[in-house]
Amino acid sequence: MSVLAYLIPISLLLGGGALVAFIYTVRSNQYDDPEGDSRRILSEEWDDHPKP
Amino acid sequence: MTAQMRPAMAVCPGCVAAPSEMPEQAPSEVRLALSLPTIHCQACISTVERGLNAHPGIHSARVNLTLKRALIEADPDLRAADLIPVLAGLGFEAHELDLASLAATQSDRAGRDLLMRLAVAGFASMNVMLLSISVWSGASDATRDMFHWISAAIAFPAVIFAGQPFFKNAWSALRVGRLNMDVPIVLALVLALLTSLWETSLSGEHAYFDAALTLTFFLLAGRYLDYRTRAVARSAAEELAALEVPRALCMQDGAPVEVPVADLALNDLILVRPGGRMPVDGCITEGQSELDRSLLTGETLPAFVEPGAQVSAGEVNLTGPLVVRAEAVGEDTSLHRMAELVAIAESGRSRYTSLADRAAKLYAPGVHILSALAFVGWYLYTFDLRMALNIAAAVLIITCPCALGLAVPAVTTAASGRLFKRGMLIKDATALERLAEVDTVVFDKTGTLTAGTPQLENPDDFSQADLALALALAQGSAHPLSQALTRAAQAAGVDPAAVSTLQEHPGYGTEGLFQGRRVRLGRAAWLGAEQGGQTAAWLDRGDGTAPRAFLFHDALRPGAAQAVAQLQAAGKEVLLISGDTSAAVADLATRLGIKTWQGEALPKDKATRIQALSDQGHRVLMVGDGLNDTAALTAAHVSISPASALDAARVASDIVLLGQDLEPIAEACVLARKATRRIRENFRIATLYNVVAVPLAIAGFATPLIAALAMSTSSITVSLNALRLK
């Protein structure tokens, strides 16, 4: 059962990590234009290099 | 993206390079917003962004496709008006938006706050559920205790953070001595956490940490859906308001200067160009023109005005430029006073109790009594406080209104989304429920059933030569009647006659020379003719014969006839009440097959008529657009106004029609009925789960597993049922 000593912290860290990532996406306005973002990937602009 | 939302940080490279050189200067850039109603794909996004970014003076432009908007950061001297032709050249319709009116949408803090709490509850419940499942599948003794302690360590902070909206609501209800849906929720959360902690400390078998968290998660999901629906409606409503940029041309030292309407002072001289709306009440000092007063009074006939005439804010100037001396500004204008009347009427409006509130009223006390009885019963039976408390907590958790909390928002979100696609904006949370009860529909005429654009009625009465002459004269003016005449003549394939020295006399008409004769097209009094009851433009052919009249009627709004017919077919009574002349109202009523009509109605008459109908037990839907309709819109059970309506009318109504078409009104009534039926079904489903699970809980057989199953299945069934809405 000693494996739990590793697994439980790992599961908590993964959950916490996902939560932090989600909070970051909310804070950086990534849900402001869901429609536009899903369309922008179809555009060829900035395909070669990211927008400066 | 980040840079865009934080104006203080978004600076052009030049400003970063030389920040010290311009310390106390005017802001180095302005933010502009444009509404782009026609964009729909990634090609549109690229075209607009490329076009705007190539325009000199623009630092950055980004399109938001969801909101159909472009946000632009540019040099301070750039005006949105300069960009509209640029976009028109690219093939996109664009309108300026007033950023001040949009401010509330920009900082959507409440929504973000809810989303954050939802995320915390979601991630915490996932982790706790992982541990709970191991307990349910057989972990025992020290392992189980450790899992419970870890769950407690996650659940306590998570519920304290995520459950705050419920705590606040429950506290504000309790403070005034009332019960709402949040009181049993909070009680269930607190009791579940505390008894579980107690159980854990005693190495007990059952802990409800997972239930407390999933409960918070599902309930927050319902809240968030509800919030989203209203936020979408609010941002669309704000966009409508932001389309009317509050600016006026103020005469300073003889030259017009653009100033915000809020800065206008008494006795300012204000220039109102043709097509512009009066920003203030006042008196005309220069110019002659005709005014369209239909939004204020419902009359379609334009009124002739000259220096000395009184004008009210909200009237539209049709032909010549006018200079107005402001006699009442801002809050004192008649427009504002009428809007305030509406606010007063609003506060006296009998509050509609929504289905959810009615359910909560039955539900909250019932749950408390049930769990208190379970506690007292078991305590008296066993004298075991721990067991009695555990059972009371289980009853509260199982009856907790997860499904009830989702029952209404899930349906209204689905229904509002569907109606939004059809061009209807549901502004009020209970508007759908009220719309479902409607049995009488009252329409306003001008601007609601009619489009507000005149249509030539009698082109066949005139010879080709007369039409050619009229067309030549009409082309020299931007007056709505001239434009209608031009459209009709061009549709008939008439070429304009060779009229020279064309001249427009604002407020009167146009005149010119044709084969050496003076020919005129204009209002009756100018040509010496008798003004009839109908909108008309008169043609004087200059050959000594009496002037003849081109008659106009107001064109029907698209879908008006269908909407009326469908409403009547659905068994609703349709009425037409207008401030226009009785003849015009009667004519329209017969055209649309409306049996009951009333003309020359004052704003008060409309409201009293609706009040009388309500007193007879009818549920009235009022559809209107003018300021004269606002009192009626507020008095009605539920109200709809078109997007072209005045701000005050839109604010007073529950639903706004975004498109030109009226047909969705009939559909909305049908959909509202279906939605209400779904809501009732959802309540029944939720009750059914309780009927099965509550006896188990009271009998003491409930385990955390049963609670989790009942809660999740009922919430999911309710959401799926809402999605069936078509």
Note down, in words, how this protein is organized.
The complex is a heterodimer of chains A (52) and B (726). Chain A has helices at residues 4-27, 34-40. Chain A is elongated. Helix content of chain A is 60%, strand content 0%. Chain A is mainly α and 52 residues long. Chain B is an alpha+beta fold. Chain B folds into 5 domains: 2-97, Alpha-Beta Plaits, CATH 3.30.70; 109-235 and 352-411 and 674-723, no CATH class; 247-331, Calcium-transporting ATPase, cytoplasmic transduction domain A (Distorted Sandwich), CATH 2.70.150; 424-439 and 558-658, 3-Layer(aba) Sandwich (Rossmann fold); 453-555, Calcium-transporting ATPase, cytoplasmic domain N (3-Layer(aba) Sandwich). In chain B, the strands form 5 sheets. A 7-stranded mixed beta sheet of chain B has the order 14-26-25-24-15-22-23, sandwiched between helices. Chain B has a 6-stranded antiparallel beta sheet with strand order 6-5-7-13-8-11, with no helix packed on it. In chain B, strands 16-21-20-19-18-17 form a 6-stranded antiparallel beta sheet. The A-B interface holds A 1, 4, 8, 11-12, 15-16, 18-19, 22-23, 26, 28-36, 39-40, 42-43, 45 and B 1-2, 5, 41-43, 45-46, 63-67, 112, 115-116, 119-120, 123-124, 126-127, 130, 143, 150, 154.
